[in-house]
Each structure stands twice: as C-alpha cells, then as structure tokens.
Design a protein that fits this description.
CATH superfamily of the largest domain: NAD(P)-binding Rossmann-like Domain
Keywords: Oxidoreductase
Radius of gyration: 24 Å
GO molecular function: oxidoreductase activity, acting on the CH-OH group of donors, NAD or NADP as acceptor
Protein name: Mannitol dehydrogenase
Oligomer: single chain
CATH topology of the largest domain: Rossmann fold
Strand order of the largest sheet: 7-4-3-8-9
Organism: Leisingera methylohalidivorans DSM 14336
Number of strands: 14
Number of helices: 22
Structural class: alpha/beta
Strand content: 5-15%
CATH class of the largest domain: Alpha Beta
Number of domains: 2
CATH architecture of the largest domain: 3-Layer(aba) Sandwich
Length: about 500
C-alpha cells in the first residue's frame, strides 16, 4: 500500500520544466511537436517579458507546430542589469515557457518552445551587438515599454539631452541603450557587407515602427551621418498593433502552473484573445505569421488608433480610479458600479467619436469587446500594473484623444476627471488612508506636483513634459480644476457619482 501511495504521489508531482521533461508533460498540456534541436535563429527579441512570450513568441510557436519557420527561432536579449534574472530563470528551463490561457470558466496550458537561447547581459552590450551582426539574424524585435523610446515631449523627436543618449553618442561602440546597440550592430553589418535587418517594435505606441526608426537613425546621426543614411534607406521599421492582456507573474501564477502539473519559474498567464496587425515591410524576409492568425495590412494605423484609444486609454480610465478606491484588479474595477459607469460613459461620449472603424469592427462594438475582456474575472490583471508609468501612458494614450476632442469642440469632462484622478493618485495615498508605493519612473516629481495641486490645480498641468500644450487650453484647465477640487474635498466616489449622473456635489442644487 505504501508503495502504491508513493507511486501516486510521484505521478501527481509537477514536472520540472526543461527539454528533457517534455515527454513527461501531463496529458492535457500540449508541448512542442517540433524538433527544437533543429531550429535555427532568425530573430533576436530585446526586452523579453511576459507579453512577448504570450504574443509574438506564441505566433511563431504556432507556425513551428505546423512544420514552418524552422530558421526563425528566437534568441532573447536585454540591455539592463535587471534582465539577468529573467535570463537565469529561462535558461534553467531551456527557454521553454508555460502559457496558461485564462478563459471565463476554464483554464488550459501549453508549452511554447520558439525561443532557443538568451544572450548574456553585459555592460556595453557586446554579446548582443555581436549576435545582431550575424547575417542569420534578419529581424530584431523589441518590447521596451512606451517610455523606452527617449522621445522629446516638446518636439516628438529623439531626446538628445537624455543622459543615456548622450552617453551612447560619446561611446557608440559600447552603448547603453537598445537603440545604440542596434546602431552598433548595423554599423558592423554594413562594414562586413552583411546587409540590413528589420527592426520590429512590438510596443503599445502609436506609429511604433516610425518611432523606432526615428530613435535608431537619430542616434546614429549623432556620430556617423553616413551610417544613419544607410540605416534609413536600407532597413525596415514596420508599424504594428499588438493586443493581448498578459498579467504580471507572481506567486499565484507559479502556483497555478504547479496545479496544472508544471514547475515553471516564470510561467505566463494570458486571456483567450490575441491580435497582431503588421505592416508588411521586412527588408530581409519574415515568417508567415498570417498563417498563425496575424494580419498584414497597409492600414495598421486605423487598427492601432482603435486599440490604443479604446483599450489602452480605457485601462487608464479604470486604473487610477481603482487605485484610489482600493480596487485590486481591472476585472474588479468592471464589477464596481461607479468605475464601470465611468468607463462606459467616457468610452461612448469622449473616446469612440474619435476612432475610425476598421474592417469588420466599428468603435462601439470594439468598446463592448474590450468591456467583456476587461470583465474576465480569471484575469488577475492588477490595477497597480496597469497604472504603472502613467507619465508615459497618459501622454501616449489619453492626451491625443483630449486634443482631438478639444479641437472638435466635443465634451472632455470625463477625460478631465480621469486626469484629476491620476493627479490625486500621485499624491501617494488612497482614500482609505493606505500608502500608494512609488509606481512611476518620475514618481518623486509627480508626487510633488500632485501635492502642490491640492491647493493650486494648475501646478499639476504645469508639468510641461507631460501636458505640453494642453495646460494652455482654458476649457480643459477649468474642467480639470473642478474635478480635482471635488476629489480632494468630497472624495473620488463623489466625483464619479456626479460625472455618471448618480449624485451631485455638496452645495449643488437639483434642477
């Protein structure tokens, strides 16, 4: 009996993920059906986090499952010291990833194997530059977040005054930034006659390919104008739109993987929805991602605007209100009557009017789709994660809508409330008195402005790197000041009730 119990316990023990253990996977967990030892690299991906593994790497994995794209395997890379921790975890499991799909009412898992190596993280990025210089590498893709493109908020061009950009201009052979490393590799390829590669941004950034071209070419021009011209004329920088909700990994996600029978140090959970819309501009070839569900089109911009304005801006509509009211996740925000009412009203009245339809989808239907996706209780996407780096996300996602609405003379009351909620959040305390820990690269400056704005709301709008031009609009300034004053005096819930028509501020009289 004891031996039988021991065998049953051993059978139930999670499989420690690595190449050798693939044959031991639980029956309901699909693994790679391709010979990973036969794969050859064609892509380097820089900034290898959860989103890449659940999205771009998954599309390639699907092609490999069909017996295609054998020479397009991915090598992971990073340019910052903190990337070393992820490298250590993934190399220990042969760069395999457990992808856990969280559908409403069901959970399933598969093992993706499209990544085959992860480069060492070194000062000066020597291993990355050398590997990108290899002619076998034909695509360099990246997810470096919206704030990682060194954009000057006043000009929209490269921020040449940024310390990291100045350092790369002074040390082009030992760069610190991803764009400096790309420029250095392209210089080596040009010198060796190896030809260019495609640089493919996969970040949630309007015109992400255009922004990437600008960063690489502008940085190269600071030290080598001829190289800059060669990059500009020969390399491709396709624009794209990427979409999949991918929460951060914590102890709960690791425990879920174990429940599914896999011991994975870095599993990825994701929703049961993906979209990838790509401009078909690849100077050195590409995988047939369309055969795995991606869309190639010259009209990326329309898809991009719809997604960034309704989904990404929608996230900001929810997150700051949720943080103030101690709501933990985005799904919990959608279950909160006042926050959900804010989301619907802002989407219908102040966002959707400035979004064009795309084939088979209009903005109203897309907003309803996003509402369903955000409401999925299986996705534990935290408000804190979504609210991170508001100093990049608000200017990138919310402010373009504000500018369009103001130019059109449309309502901006809800978007002004969203900005006021962000300003109140950055004061660093929730309405229950708990502390909001630093959650932005510019948190200290934001906190100072937020506290000053309690007495003088314009102090928040005077952050010119964030509100360039908007602070001078009298209508927006008045609406923002009204909402911020109400939030400080009566609370966020009171402001939400007033905006959604479920109450009125103290001192207001009924009509």
């Amino acid at each position: 009996m004891d031996e039988l119990m021991e065998r049953e316990t051993a059978q139930r023990a999670p499989v420690k993920l690595n190449q050798g253990a693939l044959k031991e996977l639980p029956e309901d967990v699909a693994g790679p059906q391709y010979d990973r030892s036969a794969l050859k690299p064609g892509i380097i991906h820089i900034g290898l986090g959860n989103f890449h593994r659940a999205h771009q790497a998954w599309y390639l994995h699907r092609l490999l499952q069909q017996g295609m794209a054998q020479d397009w395997a991915i090598i992971g890379a990073g340019v910052r010291p903190y990337d070393a921790a992820m490298r250590e975890k993934l190399l220990a499991q042969d760069c395999l990833t457990t992808l856990i799909e969280l559908s409403p009412g069901s959970v399933s898992a598969e093992i993706a194997g499209s990544m085959i190596d992860y480069l060492p993280i070194e000062e000066g990025n020597g291993p990355l530059i050398r590997t990108m210089s290899d002619p076998a590498i034909r695509i360099v893709s990246l997810t470096v977040t919206e704030g990682g493109y060194f954009m000057d908020p006043n000009t929209g061009g490269l921020d040449t005054a940024h310390p990291d950009i100045r350092r790369d201009a002074e040390n082009p052979a030992r760069p610190r930034t991803v764009f400096g490393a790309i420029a250095a590799a392209l210089k080596a390829r040009r010198g060796a006659g190896a030809g260019p590669f495609t640089v493919q941004s996969c970040d949630n950034l309007r015109g992400n390919g255009t922004a990437t071209r600008q960063a690489v070419v502008s940085l190269a021009r600071l030290t080598d104008p001829e190289l800059a011209d060669w990059i500009d004329h020969t390399c491709s920088f396709p624009n794209s739109m990427v979409d999949c909700i991918v929460p951060a990994t914590g102890p709960g996600e690791i425990a879920l993987a174990r429940e599914l029978g896999i011991e994975d140090a870095a599993p990825v959970t994701h929703e049961n929805y993906r979209q990838w819309v790509i401009e078909d501009d690849f100077c050195a070839g590409r995988p047939d991602w369309d055969k795995a569900g991606a869309v190639f089109t010259p009209s990326v911009h329309d898809y991009e605007v719809m997604k960034i304005r309704i989904l990404n801006a929608g996230h900001q509509v929810l997150a700051n209100a949720g943080e103030m009211l101690s709501v933990e996740t985005i799904a919990d925000c959608m279950a909160h009557p006042l926050i959900a009412a804010l989301f619907r009203k802002v989407q219908q009245e102040e966002i959707a009017p400035y979004v064009a339809a795309v084939p088979e989808m209009n903005p109203q239907d897309y907003a309803e789709l996003i509402e369903r996706r955000f409401s999925n209780p299986a996705i534990r996407d935290t408000v804190r994660r979504v609210a991170f780096d508001g100093s990049s996300r608000h200017p990138g996602f919310v402010h373009p809508i504000l500018r369009d609405a103001l130019a059109a003379g449309g309502p901006v009351s809800g978007l002004s409330l969203v900005e006021a909620l962000w300003a109140r959040m950055c004061a660093g305390t929730r309405e229950d008195g708990t502390v909001i820990e630093a959650n932005d690269p510019n948190w200290e400056a934001l906190a100072q402005a937020a506290l000053a704005a309690r007495q003088r709301p314009q102090a928040w709008l005077e952050q010119h790197s964030i509100y360039s031009g908007l602070a001078d609009n009298q209508w927006f300034a008045v609406e923002f000041s009204r909402w911020l004053g109400l939030i400080w005096s009566e609370g966020s819930e009171a402001a939400l009730r007033v905006y959604t028509g479920q109450g009125q501020a103290k001192g207001e009289t009924g009509r």
